[in-house]
Amino acid sequence: MSYIDEALERVKAKNASEPEFLQAVEEVLESLRPVIEANEEKYRKEALLERLTEPDRQFKFRVPWVDDNGQVQVNTGYRVQFNNAIGPYKGGLRLHPSVNTGIIKFLGFEQIFKNSLTGLPIGGGKGGADFDPKGKSDREVMAFCQSFMTELCKYIGADVDVPAGDIGTGAREIGYMFGQYKKIKSCYEGVLTGKGLSYGGSLARTEATGYGLLYITEELMKCHGESMEGKTVVISGAGNVAIYATQKAQQMGAKVVTCSDSTGWIYDPNGIDVALLKEVKEVKRARLTEYAAARPDAEYHEGRGVWSVKCDIALPCATQNELHLDDAKLLVANGCKAVCEGANMPTTIDATKYLQENGVWFIGGKAANAGGVATSALEMSQNSERLSWTFEEVDSKLKQIMVNIYHNIDDAAKRYGQEGNYVMGANIAGFEKVAEAMIAQGVV
Ligand code: GLU
Predict the structure, then answer these.
(1) Which residue's CA lies nearest to atom 10 of ligand 1?
(2) What is the pLDDT of residue 250?
(3) Tell me, what CATH number does 324's domain have?
């Protein structure tokens, strides 16, 4: 049996109850086949794939806190430190009721390759809790964040592991967590990214994932003789990534006609009003029905449906496994040219294959949404030199990073005779650097 198949079987047997983690591993290992086969004996002897798919360590802990009724609540917190071959562990904290070990491991595993692709010195990690910030008061969110950090602070540090935001963790949560870290450790250091601008945050970090997604999409279009101007774009999600992806797409002259949340979706034929979306989601923290109520021409639909809208470009920016095979078929039938992932693993494996086989240019999240973590690494650099860069400086670095990622993944795919397979290109380019660093550092 080939080394890849052996390794895959072992991972499946060991992690049978973690479907999202297995999905992420399968996607990566399958696409690494040509690289691994070219180095079969060496990598098998090094047990490279076993080492890559087993986290360095993982923490799971109790997070008790008191709600506004005086009732004690208990959540489960996680931090998975996956791989630090090329830099301190780096990755966000997801706060969502669906969070479990398998979800954090899939996200941490993907982060290894994504972070490598940025070209910056950051390893892979991820964390979070099954806490739902929705409907909680600010005081409850603070109580949770403080309790969470009381345990997490034992395992992280500016040169060890640097968490950040993800679904459910935004500026408010990062602020409370940073305050608690500083209080316990008596140490003012860049231990978290996505911080507020008054205490060490970076300009353009908030916008970075969405903007970065559009910079790479624009480069993809340009390299195929197209532009963003006049294109119809469908976007899922209504969080930080979706909001700034919509804003940048509109600045580039495209029309974004959809957004969605966990209960429904909006079709706005006049183009999504970003200011209104921000008001509904970030200030009122309300449902999208409020968006529709304020826009007479916009339609609100319950459930899923964004991918049924005719478009040139689709940008899934909500969450994992939100774009299924049936959705891919609709996109192809409607003439969609490109799909680039703003979320982590939003497209199922069979949907990805279908899109690729039907000539849709597809860039996976590890490349397409790397702008967020790349800008986090720029925040770390600014914290280390105790300086702040201007918005333009950070934004132009972000743009350059995304353009470089596009060309690196395109070149990697071409090197292995798979031109246009950006999923393979991203996995190969991300893997090569990490594998070389792991082997150079010995068996650790
Ligand atoms: N959560 C983001 C991601 O999935 C950002 C992580 C970070 O900035 O560390 O890449």
Answers:
(1) 373
(2) 98
(3) 3.40.50.720
